[in-house]
Design brief:
Elements: H1 7-10, H2 13-66, H3 73-98, H4 106-137, H5 141-166, H6 172-188, H7 190-205, E1 213-215, E2 220-226, E3 230-234, E4 240-244, H8 245-249, E5 254-255, E6 262-270, H9 276-288, E7 300-306, E8 311-319, H10 327-344
Antiparallel strand pairs: 1-2, 1-5, 2-3, 3-4, 6-8, 7-8
Helix pairs in contact: 2-3, 3-4, 4-5, 9-10
Length: 376
């Protein structure tokens, strides 16, 4: 059986043309029904924008002229925010009045406007309260940021919940679903959560503050920032290192800045034949000549240990908190000055040496005794 095949029907062109025609007719109906109101709504939005600009200029001018607070950015920011919310509310009310399908949302829009004003004023009061309390308890910058961020997050979530409730949307089931998802994500991101908990612990325990110089098992530097995930330090070589909070919280941390002044111990070797009292006088004179060494507590030169081939002296002295940053350089300068002073006075600074005796091997010629001195 043979018949003639319609190519347009075979390729689906007839169905496509019919769908396009139906869509175009729908667009024309929508434009005919809502087009004038949409154009009027756009003109109203433009009008309200111009009114907002003009009223803002006049309000700021009056604020600066009569109340003399033009130099206060907080007053200007509050006034600008209130004006924006007000004109936004007026614009939304005008739009809902133009479209009958949105007319029943007019009351909700006005309630949201009042709610946003209340939330904004409330956040200002909360910020002031947090500022007074953090100043009273002398919290450091990191802990202040943590408290402010957590409070802001809770306040924003409360605002979103209240705004959604004005439109009849219940967010509790959604939050419950997000909690289940968050629990699943938490099992998959245990390291991130561990660093997060460790960061909160460090902020509450406060073993160090921003600007302190700390030393861990692998790093030493100045704390530049403490986030909920990492502790960031700047080393003496100006390298910026981010250490996971879990490692910092579980390690031994030495705070070089918290105690104020810092005591340094510098070891200097001395030959057994030399007199300790003489070397002490020379080294104390060296310490008094270093500007960074504090006179009180007084520096000390003590015998730390009697080694196999030398006496180990220790120079104990204190430096101020402002010199903690450069204490390795001060230590090197003291070592250099001590070596030069001892060498100039003829006091031997020995180098490590070891004597080996071989049993059963006769010595044909006894070597003449000689003195080994460190040639520095």
């Amino acid at each position: 059986m043979t018949g003639q095949v319609d190519p347009s029907r075979l390729l689906g062109l007839d169905a496509l043309r019919a769908a396009l025609a139906e869509t175009w007719q729908g667009v024309r109906d929508v434009v005919a029904e809502y087009g004038p109101n949409a154009l009027l709504a756009a003109l109203l939005v433009l009008l309200y924008a111009l009114l907002f600009w003009g009223v803002s200029k006049v309000a700021f001018a009056l604020l600066g002229r009569f109340f003399q607070v033009d130099t206060h950015p907080i007053a200007r920011r509050v006034l600008r925010t209130v004006l924006r919310l007000t004109f936004l509310m007026l614009g939304l009310l005008s739009i809902t009045a133009l479209f009958p399908a949105l007319a029943h949302w007019s009351g909700a829009v006005f309630r949201v406007y009042l709610l946003l004003l209340l939330l904004y004023v409330g956040w200002g009061v909360i910020q002031r309260f947090l500022h007074v309390q953090t100043e009273h308890w002398e919290l450091d910058t990191s802990l202040r940021v943590l408290v402010s961020n957590v409070t802001r997050a809770v306040w924003v979530l409360l605002g979103v919940y209240l705004v959604a409730a004005q439109f009849g949307v219940n967010l509790l089931p959604i939050l419950g679903g997000l909690g289940v998802v968050g629990l699943a994500v938490g099992f998959a991101a245990q390291d991130i959560l561990a660093n997060l908990i460790s960061g909160i612990t460090l902020l509450l325990d406060r073993p160090f503050r921003l600007g302190d110089w700390i030393r861990t098992e692998a790093h030493e530097g100045q704390v530049t920032r403490l986030t909920l995930r990492t502790t960031r330090i700047r080393t003496r070589d100006n390298e910026h290192v981010s250490i996971p909070n879990r490692e910092v919280a579980g390690a031994v941390v030495e705070n070089l800045s918290k105690g104020g002044t810092l005591r340094l111990n510098v070891n200097v070797p001395l030959a057994y034949r030399e007199h300790v009292g003489r070397a002490r006088q020379l080294l104390l004179k060296v310490l008094r000549g270093v500007p960074e060494v504090l006179p009180d507590p007084a520096p000390q030169v003590l015998v730390q240990e009697l080694e196999e081939s030398r006496v180990r002296l220790v120079l104990r002295f204190w430096i101020g908190a402002e010199h903690v940053v450069t204490y390795p350089v001060i230590r090197m300068q003291v070592l250099e000055a001590a070596k030069e002073a001892l060498q100039a006075a003829g006091v031997e600074v020995p180098f490590p040496r070891m004597q080996v005796h071989l049993d059963g091997v006769p010595s044909a010629v006894s070597p003449e005794p000689r003195e080994d001195r460190a040639d520095a």
